[in-house]
Structures are given as structure tokens and as C-alpha cells.
User: What shape does this take?
Amino acid sequence: MKLTEKQIEVLEILENNSARIPVEDIAKMAELSMAETETILDKLEEMKVLVRFNSVIDWSKVDGHEGVTAMIDVKVAPKRGVGFDEVAQRIYRFKEVRSVYLMSGAYDLSVIIEGRSMNEVARFVSEKLSTLDSVLSTTTHFILKKYKHDGTIFEQSEDDKRIVVSP
Amino acid sequence: MNGTKSYLSKTVEELKPSGIRRFFDLAAGMEGVISLGVGEPDFITPWSVREAAILSLEQGYTSYTANAGLLELREEIAGYMEKSFGVSYSPRSEITVTVGASQALDIALRAILDPGDEVIVIEPSFVSYVPLVSLAGGMPVQVQTLKENGFKILPEQLENVITDRTKAIILCSPNNPTGTMLSGSELEAVAQIAERYDLLVLSDEIYAELAYDGEYTSFAAISGMKKRTILISGFSKGFAMTGWRLGFVCAPEAISQAMLKIHQYAMMCAPTMAQFAALEALKTGRSDVEDMKKSYRRRRNYFVQSLNELGLTCHVPGGAFYAFPSIKSTGLSSEEFAEKLLLEEKVAVVPGNIFGESGEGHVRCSYATSMELLQEAIKRISHFLKRNQKA
Assistant: This one.
């Protein structure tokens, strides 16, 4: 779908700033009025281009919420008429599943699972995922440490190294 | 030393210390300061560029380069100037790689000035122009631009100060501290004067990459002006490489060779690893520059509109990353305003008078600061203004 320059501008502002940025500030940044900005935001949501306002959270810092994430390479047998879509749907409907991507290369679906413990993830893979009819095999990789997630570096020091006043 | 005789040069003794220094001392050591006082990008040099410099060190490129800089870099600069600004310079005889645009300015002035030669400095201006003219033995002649004219120089203002001794005009567009950018036709008017009075123009184009509204025109691209132009630029602002100290200067061969003479005796060459970094910046850093520029532009829009809403009236700066609002409505001088704002609200700005007389009544605020901090700064300034409203 073809978006206007201002619609793209608003999307870029949202992508590069905190989800808490006031509409008023977005309007100023994009040289729009408040009303125009509201209209663009509504339209983008309606078109499902703007899907959700998300926050990036580093749960590994929160006691009791560290959790585990696994990336699972899944080989599946595509079905006539529906291809990979049907099995993908069966997989992404589980709430433990954070992402599902259809991949080129050695396997077909890349599935990202979050669970409270390794056991929980293991149980999900063996009981839910592997037992699906079309699933031929799974390879599970546990994530040991998240350095950068969705464009955000987790352990970056935020301090400004510039001197306070300079010509 | 017996304490009575001064060993210092008269010229240096007479130089005013930079007013920025005092503010730096005041702000240094304070905790929680939001600094809008910084004349450099908040972005760190793109990783691809830093990585290329590291690689050059690993490979052992730690010796001098040619005086004028790595030929490969000069060739890349020539291509970049041609493609981006439509000006063509010979990498072998018209381009010198320098230690920042500051050194380029220094050798340019030293190459052209005899004692007593006058150089026109358009104020408010970058703090180094006047002292560097004096250090090169010249006489700085200041012209004040006005807020009413958007801090743009009018041709008649230039003509009013031109004498038989006038040798050059220093032009800086987009400008530090006002952010003002001159259009092609406004530059054309300056060009006509340069032609009529047979003057050189030192065109400081360090902010050329950061032009937001309309087409950017290099002074050297104006018909007939290449032979009169010493074009100074560098990597500091556009490519976020201030600490690398890497600039360059393009000028007709005779002037280039004169500058190179000074450069080879006084500097040898620009730092080698920084030259490798710059090479990478030109080859692959363009998209980073575009991203940073977009971000500055949005922050400018937000910040300038917010300042105007607070009653600190401010023209929309066409380039660079400075807003230059008037603070006259507060009844404070620009130094008082900056000092009080720093002490009471911990927001650092630079008083406008530091950039010349016509900067009085204004402060320079850099919006090369994250959106979150700009939003907080606006809150603090608003708070400050409420408390310090003129009775």
C-alpha cells in the first residue's frame, strides 16, 4: 500500500522515539497540526500499518521474571492448497509463541518461544510443537543473553561523553 | 622571569579569552545538567567508520601520510564534493586534508593575509574567526546581522565596511550560532560584491550536510566564484566525527599550494587513523548522515515551535543544529539568562553575546540532544520563565 510522505514521517517518529511521546510533540516534529496528526494515526491504525504501541522491556533485570527464550528451527510438511500458512497458524496461536517466521534455507519456520523456565519450554516443544501432524523435526536453541533486541541495545551506557559547553 | 616582564606576544595578550570558557567552568561539576550548550552532534560516530579506523590500526597504518593527506581520501573528497555540491576540485592540487575545519581556517587565513589586511566577519559568528584573523596578522572587521533579517547579511552592509585593505569575507552557511542558511540568490548577492571589489570568500561549509529547508548551495558552485573561494569543510558535524579532528580545504591551486606550505611545516599531516575513518565515512557513511539529519530536523521542528510557544521567539533555522531564540522578553541580558537558567533549572545554553554584539539578547541552544532531554529541557525552561516573568 502506498503511504503519504507525512504518514511515513509519523511512523518513523514513532519507531525512533518512546511509545510515550505525546501526540502534540509528534505533530511539532512532523510540522503538522494536532488534528492532522490524530487523523494520520487513526488512519495508520485502521490500515493495520501501525499495529501496536510497544515497549521494549529487559525482563532479565527483574527478579523472578527473568524467564527463558528459545528459537526453534522447525521443519514442516507443507499442505496442498494452504502451504505453510495453516501449520504456522496452528503454531502462532499458542500464547507461549512470541514470533513465527517462514524462512528460506535449511528449515521452514523459525519459532520464538518464551517461558518461565527451560523445563516449561522443553515441555512445550515436546508436547505441543513436535506432536503437530505437519511438524517433521525441531531444533531448539536457548538464548543465553540478549545484547540487542528490536534495534535497542540493552547494556549500552547512556551517558553523554561530550563536554557540557563547546563552541 | 622576574615577574615584571611579560614574555607573551602582544597579539596573544590582546586576544579576549573565549566567553564559552566561563560557562564551561560554571557548568562543569554540576550534576543533572541538560546541556544544550554543545556545538557537536549527540550521535556517536557510525560504527562502520569506527571499525574502519580500528582495522587501519590493526593493519599497522600508523605512519605519516602525504602532507595533503592520503591521495585515496582526497580523490574520495573530490568525488563527494562533485556529487553532493556540484563543485569540482583536483585531488592532486586543490584539496588539503586538515586537522579539523579549524586548522583549515587557520592556514587559509595565514596563506592570504599580510599585516593590516582586513577580513570581514559576519556576526553573530563562530567564536574562532576574529581571533584567527588577528593571529594571522589581519584586522577583523565585524558586521552585525539582525534578527529582523533572519540574521542574513545584506549586500549593502558588506559594502559599507569594504575598504582598500579588505581582502576577504568569511561566510558561514548554515551558520553557527544562528542556524541561518543563505539561499542561492542570497549567496549570489555576496558573489557580486566579491567580484566588484575583487575579494576572496572563505566559505565555512562545515554544516553543509545539515541543511533542512530548500536546496543547499555551495559558494564555490556559484558561477565565477570557484576562483575566489576557499571552501572549508570537514567530517565533524555531518558525520558526527568531532573528536577525530578531520577537515579539508578546497581552493584554487595557487592558494592550495600556499596553504600546503604552512600545513607541511606546522602540521605535517592530519592523523592517519582519522583519515582512514574519513575514507570509510565517505564510502559508506552517507545513509548514517541521512538518518541523523532526519532526526535533527524533527527535533528542530519540535524545539523551535516549543520555544516560540513559550514566548522565546525564534526564527526557523534552515540548517546546522542550533536554535537562536530571543530572550529579550525576560528583561535579562543573555549572560544573566544563561547563568540563571543553569543555576536554577540546570539547563545549559550559551549566551548570544559570546558570538558577537548582535548576539546579545539571544541564547544559542543546540538541539543535537535526544528527544527525551529536549522535552525535559522545554519543561524546565517553561518553569524558569514562569518564575522569572518580567514584572
